[in-house]
Amino acid sequence: MGAFVLRRLAASLITLFLASIVVFAMVRAVPGDIVEQMMGQLGGSEGEAVLRRFFGLDEPIHIQYLDWLGRVLRGDLGVSWRLGAPVTALVASAFLVSLQLALLVLVFSAFIGVPLGLMVGRWSGGAFDTAIQSFNVVALATPVFWIGLMLLFGVSELLGWSPPTIYVSPVRSITENLTILMLPMLSLAFLQIAAYAQFVRQHVIAAMGQDYVRAARARGMPMRRVLLRHVLRNILVPLSTFMGLIFIQILGGVVVIESIFGLPGLGRLLVNALNARDFPVVQGALLTVLISAIVVNLIVDLLYRAIDPRLRT
Amino acid sequence: MNPTVFAYLRSRPGLATGLAMIAVLLIVVAVPKVFAVHPPEAIDVANALLAPSGDHWFGTDHVGRDVFARVVHGARTTLGIVSGSLLLSAIFGGLAGSLAGYARGWTDISSGQMIEVILSFPPIFLGVMITGILGSNMGYLVLALSVVYLPLFFRAARSTTMVEGAKPYVEAAQALGAGHDRVLLRHLLPNVVPSIATQYIILFPLALQVQAALGFLGLGVQPPTADWGASLQESKDYLLIAPWMALFPGLALIVASLAVILVGRGLQDTDDQ
Questions:
Q1: Is the omega angle on the peptide bond into residue B13 within 30 degrees of 0, that is, cis?
Q2: Does the beta-carbon distance from B216 to A290 stay under 8 Å?
Q3: What is the pLDDT averaged over residues B97-124?
Q4: Which of A3, A106, A182, B150 is the most exposed place for a label (fewest CB within 10 A)?
Q5: Among A81-85, B104-108, B266-270, where is mean pLDDT lowest?
Q6: Nearest residue on chain B to A267, judged by CA atoms?
Q7: Is residue A82 classed as helix, strand or coil in its secondary structure?
């Protein structure tokens, strides 16, 4: 187990290292940096060289990369070229917004999707099952941001409620914070509820033929109890790893949803920084996404091994 | 129609529905002018934000363009970009994957590591990064989408090649003196194509969602070209006064995704039997 953890960790670090080079190289490979934008028509002057030196753009690219990497390892992502603020703080506050939303979606959809999956698996083949299966297909086909637009229109038109547009952190007011996050959460949850239900359904159907379910039934245990006490407990292992994969998917959806509901999350930070050619922020935001995706994948892998001894070698 | 094909489709209503929907979409893509009376880019500010009516079935947008015409013409842009990008992805990913699976050793390890790097980005972030950095034009959009889905074609081709490569017919071809290029191109690739095609159908709806999301973020197709995701972006500021601007391009996206998902599921069920 120890050797496996080390090997897996090393592989993740290599991938992260290579991905950070890709991010850095892509960002720098494009013509038109911040200095060119600042100088405009005045290009080619003495001031340009001074500014280049100021931003560290006069060094060869590999030196720039190593310089950046060295700072990153010390937790310093640089200074935003546009805002003059430290990138670490910008990215951290944006990441917390996205993270909170993603976790809300993850938990909320589990609370609805898992019981739904248990029921559908229990009565598979029935009308309810067909309905959920159709819902699943439609959920897969529907763009997350379109659901967001329709929800926004729906609550304004039908309920006469216009959702707040200014973000409030949960530290300041948890109720106001949750009010703002409610619609974005619902928009993202649609697809994930379907995913959970589908996942649990398949596991329940597979479990129904298993000896432990038949034995419990033979002892006269009611089906409800068998599902909750035995089947659900057996599903928890694959479910926890499934949640990891869903989490990464939600993180992607969050980017698009943020732009509808005006949430100051990682996606909006990234898109704004890209438009302004604010490289340090772009690099910081992408690196944060990469690290979270790689860490979640790593946890999923290790968890799977730790729980299921058959995978150990 | 051939009676057996007909009976086959009747026993699989999902597959039949999906195929019918794709047929309609293909006709719309081929001859949009037959369906849309109004030109998609004709600005008519006097008739902006009109609700759906007999003349404008889906209403008009903020500059008076016919939403129905934009949805119909948008089909060509949106579906063209997605199918083209995935085709590029399938060709390059498929070839590289087959090569890695056949050559093994360092070719396999190093290309596998590159694929791992691409996969470490969540799809939308990778798309945002490429289009956001390189700029929003159609070529870069196609590039972005094909890079996002390349790893999955690579993996499918690699594993199929590995399975096929161990079979006796490959050994026989090698024993008869066929060179590596001949074994790979003439014997292995034809057997890899079905798994690539399956992958294409599975990934199409996903790529469509990412294409639309990039358009919605303003990183995809640029105005005035009609595109479903870009139309949704324009609809955002008029949501409460002209909801039809958001409703119809979204429904078009759902219909197109649904069509391919239904075909994919229908074919999968057939394979299982």
A1: no
A2: no
A3: 91
A4: A3
A5: B266-270
A6: B125
A7: coil
Range picked from A269-283, B4-18, B194-208, B258-272 for highest mean pLDDT? B194-208
How many Å lie between the alpha carbon of A221 and the closest alpha carbon of chain B? 34
- What does the pLDDT read at residue A263? 93
A184 Cβ neighbours under 8 A, 6+ residues apart? A101, A148, A254, A257, A258, A260, A261, A263
Contact B123 A18 (CB under 8 A): no
User: In sequence order, which residues have a C-beta less than 8 Å from that of residue A110 and are 6 or more positions away?
Assistant: A196, A243
Q: With an 8 Å Cβ cutoff, are B124 and A282 in contact?
A: no
Inter-chain touch A142–B235, beta carbons under 8 Å: no
ipTM (interface pTM): 0.91
Q: How far apart are the first and last CA of chain B?
A: 24
The C-alpha atoms of residue B173 and residue B130 are separated, in whole angstroms, by 43
Q: How far off is chain A from B117, nearest CA to CA, in Å? A: 5
Please, which pLDDT band fits residue A58 given cuts at 50, 70 and 90?
A: confident
Where residue A152 sits, what CATH number does that domain have?
Answer: 1.10.3720.10
Is A252 within 8 Å of B232 when comparing Cβ atoms? Answer: no
Indicate the residue of B117, B209, B246 with minimum beta-carbon distance to A18: B117
pTM: 0.91
Q: How many domains does chain A have?
A: 1
Which residue spans within chain A are E strands per DSSP?
A: none
Q: Quick check: is A50 in a domain?
A: no
Report d(CA B73, CA B175) in Å as an integer.
55
| Average pLDDT score, chain A | 87
Judge whether A174 lies within some domain. Answer: yes
- Residue A282's nearest CA partner among B258, B196, B133 is B133
B interface mutation test: which of A137, A145, A295 has the most B CBs within 10 A? A145
Minimal C-alpha gap between A217 and chain B (Å) = 30
Q: Compute the nearest-CA separation of B211 from chain A (Å).
A: 10
The structural domains of chain B, ordered by start, are 15-31+65-272 (1.10.3720.10)
Set of chain A residues whose Cβ sits within 8 Å of the Cβ of B261: 137, 140-141
Please count the residues of chain A. 313
**C-alpha to C-alpha distance for A266 and A93, rounded to whole angstroms:** 9
Domain-embedded: residue A45: no
Q: Is B124's CB within 8 Å of A137's CB? A: no
Does A7 reside within a domain? no
Q: What's the whole-number average pLDDT of chain B?
A: 91
Locate B187 and state its tokens. 């014997």
Chain B residue numbers with beta carbons less than 8 Å from the beta carbon of A11 are 116
Of A242, A230, A227, residue with least CA distance to A115 = A227
For A28-55, the pLDDT digits (tens) are 777 666 677 677 666 667 777 777 777 7
Mutate to test the interface with A, among B114, B148, B217, B235 (most CBs of A within 10 A): B217
Full residue range of the structural domain in which residue A192 is found: 87-312
The nearest CA of chain A is from the CA of B125 a distance in Å of 7
